[in-house]
Amino acid sequence: MINRPQEDKKAELEIRNLRLSFGGVVAVKDVDLSVHTGELTAVIGPNGAGKTSLLNCITGFYRPQQGSIVFNGRDITHLHTHQLVGIGIGRTFQNIELFPGMTVLANLTLARHIHCRYSFLHSCLFTPSVREEEIRHRRILEEIIRKQTVGSLPYGMMKRVELGRALALEPRLLILDEPFAGMNLEEKEDMVRFLLELNGRWGLTMVLVEHDMSIVMSISRHVMVLNFGEKLGEGAPADISANPEVIKAYLGDAQSLE
Fold first, then answer.
1. What pLDDT, in 10s, does the model give residues 81-100?
2. Residue 34: pLDDT over 70
3. Long-range interactions of 98-103: CB distance < 8 A, separation 24+
């Protein structure tokens, strides 16, 4: 992946007054959120709080009935998923969405199609320009490649492959839905180091949904808390971990989240 210079800390993603309902059930209720360039923002909350529903609105899987989502100054509220990928929004999923019978390389290569400049005819002829572009795509994938079928990999490595596929899109904004779910301690530590490198050295803007509070509080710069679809709190990790309303929503008493 090409390193990007750090930009001014402007709001890269702006969500305003967002509401999503399924029949009489309100999944996201009047939510506001600003995510700044190069910032790692975590969205937390109990099960059923509306976290994944919010991510699905950002990435085009759900269409909100109210509110707006603006990415780099462009209203993307009603864009389709493939259009959002094309403008720089990548995503991983809560449940692994890979092709288990294909190799890691093949899974990652699928994500490169949006960057292909040659036509179908040129690909069939495999002209010099096509060869040069294929070499360029391979170089970008070399950092994260393993020539095994995905189905034969350990669970933690499959989660890394899914993250790698999202990175192969060269996103400006990376949406992560529970990337640590199902991992053991060693796998979580490896993933933490990798995400911190992406955020720090590559300057990648990220929105993270995660249940492991020790991870959230150690790597996030900004945290928003949802509960029953509504924003319960927002701020720096230290402020959120000491917020009595947040603690009550998680634990039902005055214990610390840390």
1. 989 988 999 998 876 666 57
2. yes
3. 98/150, 98/158, 98/161, 98/162, 98/165, 99/150, 100/149, 100/150, 100/151, 101/149, 101/150, 101/151, 102/149, 102/150, 103/146, 103/147, 103/148, 103/149, 103/150
DSSP secondary structure code for residue 115 in this structure: G
CA 160 distance to own-chain centroid = 13
H helix or E strand, kind and range, residue 36: strand 25-36
Mean pLDDT value across residues 240-258:
73
Inside any domain, residue 226: yes
The dihedral through the CA atoms of 218, 220, 221, 225 has a sign that is: negative
The answer for residues whose C-beta is within 8 angstroms of residue 167's C-beta and 6 or more apart is: 1, 90, 144, 174, 198
Task: Find all residues with CB under 8 Å of 78, minimum gap 6, and list them.
Answer: 63
For every residue of 132-153, DSSP letters joined together read HHHHHHHHHHGGG---SBGGGS
Instruction: Provide the domain count of the chain.
Output: 1
Q: What three-state secondary structure class fits 31?
A: strand
| Spatial separation of the C-alpha atoms in residues 134 and 36, rounded to whole Å | 34
Please give the Cα distance from 92 to 160 (Å, whole number). Answer: 10
**Mean pLDDT over all residues of the chain?**
81
Looking up residue 180, the CATH number of its domain turns out to be 3.40.50.300
Q: Does residue 61 belong to any structural domain of this protein?
A: yes
pTM of the model: 0.78
The domain of 33 spans: 11-88+171-251
